[in-house]
Amino acid sequence: MHRSLNAGTHDEDPDQAITSRGFKHHIALALIERGCTWRQAHKAVDLFFQSIKMALRRHETVDLPFGTFSVIPVPQRRQRRWRFGQPQLVFRNRFRVVFTPRDLD
Question: Could you please report the per-residue DSSP string of the chain?
């Protein structure tokens, strides 16, 4: 049986192609169907997700039509672990990103 190296070709299982390519590729394909070139679509998708990441790094709330991303502080707790025969202090991440879905009805 012939196996293609490119995911999403006509000789592969379509469900397998979704997991191997990722969801950003499928969003870009929707933009391509609406008239964008391949390069424009992928740049737009990358820019969209990059802008969300940068806003969350600045601890801003990101409102989208389907929900809200926000950054909340996490209470700090010291944890100890042993490494190389010596105790080592380990701290958790100080902040966590939380997604709150919006009711779409």
Answer: ----SSTT-TTS-HHHHHHHH-HHHHHHHHHHHTT--HHHHHHHHHHHHHHHHHHHHTT--EEETTEEEEEEE-----EEEEETTEEEEE---SEEEEEEEPP--
